[in-house]
Design a protein that fits this description.
The chain is mainly α. Helices cover 75% and strands 0% of the residues. The protein contains 4 helices and no strands. Helix 2 runs parallel beside helix 4.
């Protein structure tokens, strides 16, 4: 199992366990999952995670990170 797969498994299990206390922490995990999907060229999966992060209504800093990823990956939600 490669590092990317182990990271994805750890992120998913932490989301399933509702490990995060703030919406920003949870949104950041969605951002990391989106980045993992973008590395494997799975743009549809990345869009799903970016939408999930945006729907949590995170702080301005996390919103800026979402916008940055969208701009760099040239995708629209």
């Amino acid at each position: 199992m490669c590092i990317r797969d182990r990271a994805r498994t750890a992120f998913k299990s932490s989301l399933d366990a509702n490990y995060f206390r703030t919406t920003d922490e949870k949104a950041s995990v969605f951002l990391m999952m989106a980045q993992l999907d973008l590395r494997t060229r799975n743009t549809e999966g990345a869009k799903r995670y970016l939408r999930d992060a945006r729907d949590l209504e995170p702080s301005a800093e996390v919103k800026n990170q979402i916008q940055f990823i969208l701009k760099e990956a040239k995708i629209k939600l």
